[in-house]
Specification:
single chain
């Protein structure tokens, strides 16, 4: 039985710089991923979206690697999201269970595919958590709007809030490739079946749709907040103009009365 442990350790990882620094045996690499064999039956998978996945590693080895890669991380997390998955080798047929997969052949391609899906799952946990925080913040503003009939957020804070939402949407869009099947699965029927089974096991598509729907709700609320803010500013501008006209009229009256 092999253990796969995946951690969301940061917002992002500088893949290019870490590849230059780390002297492991690179089995696969591109601009977004690094897949290393570090020892007999030990593998590490590094993703630019801040996830590191370990196969057949003890806790001490994981801690040492995370410490090693930390300088190449942006916004390293104190509390790391994690997911564990078990791989049973030498099975008569490939079979998917709760938190475990049984495989007939533990080839490098299959192990990498398993690690990829576990890493996608923990990344979705992170994006889901970020989306839920935005939803909670949005709901708090809509509740105040319902009770008081006005927003309790300033224009500057609203702009920052919009920026936070857009930043999250952009990061998810940037990493959409992680939810596509690797090219190897297009040519290998066995790999394709394992990939489809893993995506179902982790419910990746449904969880991703939930994140998209949550961000869409936040976006709709932000557009409403923006319209309310513009209306409020427009009213304020109208009152300023009225006051300026009033002051001008009063000046004219005083000039005529005291001429």
């Amino acid at each position: 039985m092999l253990a796969v442990l995946s951690y969301q350790i940061a917002d992002s990882i500088d893949i290019k710089s870490f590849k230059t620094f780390f002297k492991g045996d690179v089995l696969y690499n591109d601009a977004d991923e690094l897949f290393f064999k570090t020892d007999t039956d030990q593998y590490v998978y590094v993703f630019k979206y801040g996830v590191v996945c370990f196969l057949n590693y003890e806790t001490d080895g994981i801690d040492r690697f995370v410490h090693l890669i930390s300088p190449y991380c942006r916004n390293l997390f104190e509390q790391k999201l994690s997911e564990e998955f078990q791989v049973e080798t030498g099975a008569k047929e490939n079979k998917f269970g709760y938190n475990v997969i049984e495989i007939t052949n533990a080839s490098v391609d299959i192990l990498r595919l398993i690690m990829l899906n576990v890493s996608q799952s923990v990344a979705l946990d992170y994006y889901s958590d970020q989306t839920n925080k935005l939803l909670e913040e949005t709901n708090s503003h809509t509740e105040i709007l319902e009770k008081k009939g006005k927003l309790d957020i300033s224009g500057r804070n609203l702009i920052k809030y919009i920026g936070k939402t857009l930043n999250l949407k952009n990061r998810i869009a940037e990493n959409l490739y992680i939810f596509d099947s690797p090219p190897e699965t297009w040519e290998d029927e066995n790999l394709n079946k394992i990939d489809i089974g893993l995506k179902r096991t982790f419910d990746l598509q449904e969880r991703f749709r939930n994140i998209e729907e949550g961000l869409e709700i936040v976006k709709e609320n932000l557009e409403l907040f923006k319209d309310i803010m513009q209306y409020r500013n427009s009213n304020l501008l109208e009152w300023i103009i009225i006051m300026l006209i009033f002051v001008e009229v009063m000046n004219l009256l005083f000039e005529k009365l005291f001429r």
